[in-house]
Amino acid sequence: MKEQKRLGNKGFSLVELIVVIAIMAILVAVLAPTLLSKIEDSREGTDLQALGEINTAIKEAILSSETANDEMPDGTYTVALDADGKPTISGANLKNNGAKVNAELQRTIPEAKFKSKLAKDSANKIQVTVEKGIVKTALVKSDGTVVEMSNGEKFEVK
Question: N or C, where is the chain less crowded by C-beta within 10 Å?
Fold first, then answer.
């Protein structure tokens, strides 16, 4: 008799397993939205960092030579990313098609990728504003709404 009782208590009952599965399902349902929002926050942070890198690369391009500085007078420009993530700047005020600026941009940033939902909404359109020694970059939606913006830091050309 004692041997049968010992053999009968080897595992969990079906009710115990269902209770444990139900508790795990509740925990997943509560924690999943938080985890997903943290992942998106991380992607947005990475995108903002990439935007800052583009901002810095443009400042370096402008400061690297007088030719590049002459190519980008004060104004608004657009940076487009090709399929490989290579940035190319364009704009009405850009002189000489921005050859020197684009060469510096592609040297400094061989690849830029934006992964957040906000960046996808903007179709990776990056607006660059140069005004009185300040370069500002922003991801912009097709309707003109600014999605994310880098800090504009003053630089001086001498």
Answer: C
